[in-house]
Amino acid sequence: MTEHVAPTSLQDSMPLQTKTAPLPADHPPVRWGRIGVLLTNLGTPEGTSYWPMRRYLKEFLSDRRVIEVPRLIWWPLLNLIILTKRPGPKGRDYASVWNTERDEGPLKTITRGQAEGLQAAMGDSVVVDWAMRYGKPEMDKRIQALLDQGCDRILLVPLYPQYAAATSATACDQAFKALMKMRWQPTLRVSAPYHDDPVYIDAIATSIREGLAKLDFEPEVILTSFHGVPKSYLLKGDPYHCQCVKTGRLVREALGFSAEKMRTTFQSRFGNEEWLRPYTDETVQELAKSGVKRMAIVAPGFSADCLETLEELDGENRHYFEDNGGERFAYIPCLNDGALGLKVIETVVRRELQGWL
Length: 357
Fold this sequence. Notes:
Function: Catalyzes the ferrous insertion into protoporphyrin IX.
Pfam families: Ferrochelatase
Subcellular location: Cytoplasm
Distance between the termini: 25 Å
Number of strands: 8
Radius of gyration: 22 Å
Pathway: Porphyrin-containing compound metabolism; protoheme biosynthesis; protoheme from protoporphyrin-IX: step 1/1
Largest sheet: 4 strands, parallel
Strand content: 15-25%
Low-confidence stretches: 1-20
Number of domains: 2
Structural class: alpha/beta
CATH class of the largest domain: Alpha Beta
Protein name: Ferrochelatase
Strand order of the largest sheet: 2-1-3-4
């Protein structure tokens, strides 16, 4: 039986030699033996104009993990109304946070930085790449790129601290769809959610301390805002709500704040269905109306700043607070591709690669 020697560096992803004898001259090149790590996040449109936004929204809102409304109801609503009206306003929202230097959304810029930072930390022991569930770079193409570099074992890392079917599960679905088309599939692992990992909790708490230290005021209330999902998803068994609440509690305890000072809320709801409560936007307005003059918001459920944090939290909710009597408002950025964020990702990756490295 032929035995191959695994490559040890990026330059070694050439046709491999055997230990016992060279391959026959007419044997096709064989690349294998390396470990790949694929970081994945939600996605971003390729541009802010109507058609790029429409393509992105169509892919995102057609995912049955995201929208569980029966197809007979959802298809005409999506294609005849939402995809006609929403691309314009949503494109303007994206334009307000767009990375004009790279001509891309901030989520793409930061996720690339996370992958590059992880590669530097891991060295040549693994090949690190990144992909988006919706939009580009496509997951199937990046999995193939890892295979082309000799990776026959791949760790998929959904960059969502809290598990939800609409985020983590659909990322797995997309990866498995890619594998379904392959004759020679790589071995695939999926990293677990890390909502209560001590390294993650400490990183969030540290980032909040550092963010608060930069302010020239002390917030009376701090909200930990997580992306919302319909309440029906919780009732069907999705653990997302419980994991968000646990993260919020652990961060609050790490900081020594009371439940009155640091509160957990849920944002980004749309449609008429009830979502997880309390709602971030309503809470912000109620705080201002009740006399709170100084507040801050942090988004520990997002591994990278994106439209929902930069435009919705730091933009819309800032206006809600100030328009209802609030005076000082601060948004504390996500961990992103800074030292704290990379430490969390590296910790998760090294733990999940045990037995391979």
